[in-house]
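step: validate -> pass
step: tokenize input -> pass
step: predict -> running
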Amino acid sequence: MKEFFQRQGIDPETVNYTVNIVTPEEIRELNKLHRGKDKVTDVLSFPMLDITAGVLPTKENFPMDVNPETGKIELGDIVINIKEKNHEALIEHSLLHLLGFHHEGDE
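step: predict -> pass
step: emit ->
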């Protein structure tokens, strides 16, 4: 994902995120609990930052969100359905959500 962050203008050494691979049943339950949608989905994103698209997650922009143990900014969590094929593309898609980008038509 180093190249992904570099394309976004972000130093990959300054940010952190987690990826969890779960069963279809687990992702359905998370989707129901957090989004009110009782259905299996491919991926879910749980941002840690209240970030606007285009604002870089730097220590200057988010000084209170730097993990004191790692010195990195925690972007959030990504949960992927194990049945999905292209995990790398789903991670990149989710990272965009963690960076404040949303689907057209989303609020």
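step: describe -> The longest strand covers residues 73-81.
step: cleanup -> pass
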